[in-house]
Specification:
The protein has 188 residues and is α/β, with parallel strands linked by helices. The chain is built from 5 helices and 9 strands, in the order βαβαβββαββββαα. α3 links the parallel β5 and β6. It binds inosinic acid (IMP) and magnesium ion.
Length: 188
């Protein structure tokens, strides 16, 4: 199956601007954006600039699964910021099963922020195992298509695409590089 563009650069720009404006409106005193590495890195860098009217601080966390879709998650890199009493928005590329977000929010809530919200570029509720509120949502995916680009990857490939595509999950798992020829147009 050829990759299908879900969000082109213009739609990404519109979506990020909308989310940035929503976050700014809800946080007049400023906000700490917590990016989940590495997938949210590109989204977060655009989102931070779209939160234009209030001060923004940025920090990162990194976690990994013991196995794909396993509920066991470990913390690889923790925040450098004390979030006690702070207004925090967790920034994710995509919420799928919700296992990652569930783990992160449990960890962060224990540190007693004043307010803890979630901003996800993409939401795929069909595969959800752990339910969670998502206060700031870009696009809801209706089908179980694997997505790539704008930070989203498989085996660290495709993160630098300036758009998001839907790909065939089985094809990508069997051959991670399968979409490289059609998605990159290198000239010799
Ligand atoms: P969850 O814990 O199942 O909600 O998955 C969250 C993480 O898995 C996301 O933050 C992504 O990093 C990764 N992920 C889930 N679905 C996709 C996808 O379709 N493409 C690329 N990465 C994905
Ligand atoms: Mg992620």
């Amino acid at each position: 199956m050829p990759a299908r563009v879900l969000l082109d650069a213009a739609e990404l720009d519109r979506t990020v601007r909308r989310l940035g404006a929503e976050i700014a409106a809800d946080h007049p005193e400023g906000v700490l954006l917590v990016g989940v590495l590495k997938g949210a890195m590109i989204f977060l860098s655009d989102l931070a600039r779209a939160v234009q009217t209030v001060p923004v601080e940025i920090d990162f966390m990194s976690i990994s699964r013991f196995a794909p879709d396993s509920g066991r998650v470990k913390l690889l890199h923790d925040l450098q910021t004390d979030i006690g009493g702070r207004d925090v928005v967790v920034v994710e590329d995509i919420i799928d099963t919700g296992l990652t977000l569930g783990y992160l929010c449990t960890q962060l809530a224990a540190r007693e922020p004043r307010r803890l919200s979630v901003c996800a570029l993409l939401d795929r509720p069909t595969r959800r195992i752990v339910p969670h509120d998502i206060e700031y949502r870009g696009l809801t995916l209706s089908e179980d298509e694997f997505v790539l680009g704008y930070g989203l990857h498989t085996r660290d490939l495709y993160r630098n695409l300036p758009f998001v595509v839907a790909a065939d999950r089985d094809e990508v798992l069997a051959n991670p590089g399968v979409y490289v020829p059609e998605l990159y147009h290198a000239t010799d």
